[in-house]
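Retro notes, item 3 of 5
We never archived the inputs for the phosphoric acid mono(formamide)ester complex last cycle. Fixing that now. Sequence and ligand:
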Amino acid sequence: MPGINHFLNIDDIDAKTLKEILAHAHELKKLKFNPPQLFKGLSLAMVFDKKSTRTRFSFEVAFKQLGGHTIVTSMDEIQLTGAESIEDTGQVLSRFVDAIMIRMSDHATLKKLSENTTIPVINGLTNHSHPCQIMASILTMEEKLGPIAGKKIAWLGDYNNVAHAFVQASEKFDFELTLAVPESLRHKADKRANLVDTAEEAVKDVDVVVTDTWVSMGQEGKAIEIFESYQVNSKLMTLAKESAIFTHCMPIHRGEEVTEEVLASPASVIYDEAENRVHEQKAILAWCLADTEVNV
Ligand code: CP
Ligand code: NVA
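Structure as it came back at the time:
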């Protein structure tokens, strides 16, 4: 339905709005011990068809700290995985709650859900993208390095949902993103992606080195040999700026996409990034619910 602030994909939202959401997240983090009760009387449904630690906890903490109520369920506990349609699920949930945060594999189904609700739908990760994660990553980069515009960022490894959201974000937030991805996967990349052959080329003089698991959820059993030269290790980090940071959305497969040494080094900001999911989620939810009448 037009006019609803769905948060499905970075590409769908204009740059000015995204920058406002990011600025609000910075502000809400400063208010973490005195959170404004923006969601008093509101309910958020959270539905998962895949595992989650960060998304699950950070959305619940964020919504509750700002005064709201949450209902969490896995997909296989609701009628959607039986015979009930996505259309009916969307219409019915719209009568119960004020927003839906959902993690599901298929992005087209997520979109279809959003077309059949009268409330905002938030993408908690699909096979296509992970926009909430990227907003929290950028929040972390800004905290550590200052404004994101003009910064140089290297992505190494798989071209996956997180990489794709980064490519979308680079256009909106004006940062320079270089991706080193195995040749056999490059056909999957967005046309806008700046792809290079080697990890060494990608990380040269960058401000941020980013990676993610080589085996995303649902790809278990996949061969990982093609990624070996894309591992983030201490030697590779020396090619980045001296002040460079290392980020990762987590969960991490230690010794695969990144070494223990890098994770233990001062460059690693992984736990700050995880915490920032809470602050960023508050700002995303506030934008989604900006026009929702508070029922108290
Ligand atoms: N980064 C992230 O989304 O983590 P979870 O899968 O634990 O939610
Ligand atoms: N690319 C990973 C991200 C997990 C947060 C996955 O989809 O499993």
